[in-house]
Write a structure and sequence with these properties.
Number of helices: 9
Radius of gyration: 16 Å
Order of helices and strands: HHHEHEHEEHEHHHEE
CATH class: Alpha Beta
Structural class: alpha/beta
């Protein structure tokens, strides 16, 4: 079942003040390495204009802005409260926007990124179609999102995801229900080859994926023809 956009926006608005700290704690600091891995990959393309969709409090957009100072970085999100935090942290350009109807011209950006946000959208294909539309021909899409690890780690990780993580996040934010939703969203989100097939159906090519941190997170890359 697709995520309820009203619930998702309300949940993120409620946890905006503690979102950055909570992410660092819940990932054991690994989120810093994941974002810097994306920035490192972007250096090979040296994009002039980049759009970070579902930017939230701007963690990835800020990492890219610092790593690629010549790049014009725009951060969009449909939760104004989250973007307000991004702006106060130093993100220069923010736009409140629904990823299913991006307010940008076709072919505006060299790169589109989305970190831990596609999974929360009501229609994956429609969102990806919009990202493809605003990319220039030959432009790149980079997706960073949670996935379920394979092998021995899968069972203990699912226990952490569904039992321990909501308790810890609830203590940190006072909003346990917002993180109980997280586990379900990860379980149902397409990953690996399934995500590759979805990207190709939305008009992308040269799709590839790289599991990170034993498969807890996956980095996807695709190109607009």
């Amino acid at each position: 079942m697709a995520p309820d956009p009203i619930y998702v926006r309300d949940a993120f608005a409620r946890i905006a003040d503690r979102y950055v700290l909570t992410n660092h704690v819940l990932s054991g600091g690994a989120d810093w390495w994941w974002r810097h891995g994306v920035a490192t990959r972007l250096r090979q393309w040296q994009p002039a204009r980049l759009l970070d969709v579902a930017s939230g409090t701007g963690d990835l957009a800020l990492t890219i802005q610092r790593a690629l100072p010549a790049c014009d970085v725009t951060a969009s999100d449909f939760c104004a409260e989250m973007l307000a935090h991004a702006a106060t942290r130093g993100l220069r350009k923010t736009v409140v926007a629904d990823a299913l109807a991006l307010p940008f011209e076709a072919g505006e950006f060299d790169v589109v990124t989305v970190a831990f946000g596609l999974r929360n959208m009501a229609d994956y294909a429609k969102a990806l179609g919009e990202m493809c539309r605003v990319l220039k021909p030959g432009g790149h899409l980079v997706i960073l999102d949670f996935s379920l690890p394979r092998g021995w780690l899968r069972r203990p990780y699912r226990f952490y995801l569904h039992r321990l993580l909501p308790l810890l996040a609830g203590w940190l934010t006072g909003q346990r229900d917002a993180y109980e939703y997280l586990g379900t969203s990860i379980e149902t989100f397409p990953s690996g080859h399934a995500m590759g097939a979805l990207l190709e159906s939305c008009g992308f090519e040269q799709t590839a994926f790289t599991p990170l941190t034993l498969g807890v997170v996956t980095l996807y890359q695709a190109t607009k023809p």
